[in-house]
Specification:
single chain, alpha/beta, five-stranded parallel sheet, globular
Length: 225
């Protein structure tokens, strides 16, 4: 089945619309022009990829993306911004800005849809399918975004180790900038919602004050305890 893409773009996009390129490449594209219509579509279905083209939208695209993530929607999300516009905290899986070529667009889409890897990791009762971007605990499965998957993969490859914010920002976002780690903190929040029985009182993904985070495997109570 061809990948399903939900494209959110302004009515004035016209010749700059990505839709003809995507359809020619074989993607099944649904176009919407308003925040209300986008939310209504996402309530009914889950596309393989959500593309938000901010260049001609009449609403704030970054805030729209932030609201999706705050509500726990893990859909892979590509945000297209006008040249020179910064976006440090939308929660988008990937961001494109400036002149958009078909090659740049398709390369980024392929990277998002293919995921970061192709293996299954198990630590305690947490099972991460890296290729399918799903995590399971006690038979409950949740879908993750590529960045969430990569972040959880880093933790699961380093159980019991304190991982600093600087290390995580470098590993997952490939940046040395740690002046603002809200993006990391939001992703930690999402992961806790996915793997913790009580996200507000985490036992797997814990905060180490002033240092960073640690992925722990709770010890089962001994028989008769």
């Amino acid at each position: 089945m061809d990948p399903q893409i939900l494209l959110v773009e302004g009515r004035r996009a016209k010749g700059l619309s990505c839709a003809p390129l995507l359809e020619k490449k074989g993607y099944h594209v649904t176009r919407v022009h308003t925040r209300r219509n986008a939310n209504a579509w996402l309530e009914k279905g889950s596309p393989d990829l959500l593309i938000v083209d901010a260049r001609h939208l009449r609403f704030n695209a970054s805030r729209f993306c932030q609201a999706l993530r705050a509500n726990g929607n893990p859909v892979p999300l590509l945000l297209i911004l006008p040249e020179g516009e910064e976006d440090p905290s939308s929660g988008a899986t990937a961001i494109l800005r400036g002149k958009l070529t078909s090659r740049k667009l398709f390369n980024r889409i392929r990277r998002i849809l293919s995921g970061p890897g192709g293996e299954i990791l198990r630590v305690g009762d947490i099972v991460l399918d890296v290729k399918r971007r799903t995590v399971s605990r006690s038979g409950q499965q949740r879908r993750l975004t590529p960045k969430q998957t990569h972040l959880l993969e880093v933790f699961m490859r380093n159980p019991g180790r304190v991982l600093t914010r600087a290390f995580l920002m470098k590993e997952v976002w490939n940046t040395d900038f740690v002046g603002d780690t809200r993006t990391l903190e939001v992703h930690i929040h999402w992961l806790r919602r996915a793997i913790e029985e009580t996200p507000s009182n985490p036992v797997y993904l814990t905060t180490v004050r002033r240092l960073g985070y640690r992925f722990d495997v709770p010890q089962a109570d001994p028989p008769g305890a």
